[in-house]
Amino acid sequence: MTTASTHGDEVTVGHDRVTLHMTSGQSGGALAVIEVTMPPGGGPPMLHRHDPFELYCVRRGELAIYLEGRDGAVTRTVAGPGTIVPIGSGLEHTVRNESDDEATAFVVFAPGEPMERFIRAAGDADEILALAQAYGIEITRSIGDALVAAPPASAPFLTIARFSGDGDRLLDAYRTSSAVMDGVGRDHGLIVHAGAKTDSGFLVVNLWPSKESSNAAARDPRRLAAVKHAALRPDQIRREHHDVEHYVVFD
């Protein structure tokens, strides 16, 4: 149920009380800012992922943060008052109150509209998990399944992408997307990156800490949008992937 409060719209989602302090409409779609109050046992019960970036700032109490790391493994951390936790786009996660006391946090979503729409719809729905998919939230697995699924040890992983075409045009597209792609690489643990114009087009070489990190970066929505913007045909791209036996980064 949605009600009006002094400071914004108040919605009950599951056991949690959510107050919308800034709507996506007020921010031009860029952000939605909420305050969530979780009783003991509150929070989404299943791990999930979604495109909007999420930022938690814990105000009171403690929250258990389950979050996918660079190696693809989900780990649990406890965040107390004043702790700020960023949750990147597309990362598997959930946030729970596993303490004996109520907890409160401010949460920022960017972009704001998809998550705000889900929150408002969930306030009037009995089947929150079923509703999530309709609003772009992928329910992945239970917390227990994630914590017992220890990933196998992975070797460093080398990816080489050769882009055929006009080298100058490809270089311009590379420069246009470089800031976004640098962020994708940083968020997924990229060790070494190099891009160069060649006689036949453009070459990109990446060294990742693991194949899982490479795969996570490949499905990052920011990367997918940059590739789509470059308007590359599949026949223009040739990729190679190799497990790395040894590497050294010299200062």
Give a brief outline of the structure.
The chain is of the alpha+beta class and 251 residues long. Helices cover 25% and strands 39% of the residues.
How would you describe what is shown here?
By secondary structure, the protein is of the alpha+beta class. The protein folds into two domains: 2-148, Sandwich (Jelly Rolls), CATH 2.60.120.10; 157-243, Alpha-Beta Plaits (2-Layer Sandwich). The chain is 25% helix and 39% strand. The strands form four sheets. Strands 1-2-3-4-11-6-9 form a seven-stranded antiparallel β-sheet, covered by helices on one side. The protein has a four-stranded antiparallel β-sheet with strand order 14-15-13-16. It has a three-stranded antiparallel β-sheet with strand order 8-7-10. A hairpin with a 4-residue loop joins strand 1 (2-4) and strand 2 (9-13). Helix 4 runs antiparallel to helix 6.
SSE order, as H and E?
Answer: EEEEEEEEEEEHHEHEHEEHHE
Helix content: 10-25%
Number of strands: 16
For this entry, what is the oligomeric state of its chains? single chain
Distance between the termini: 58 Å
Mean pLDDT across all amino acids:
89
Determine Rg (CA atoms, Å): 21 Å
Low-confidence stretches: 1-7
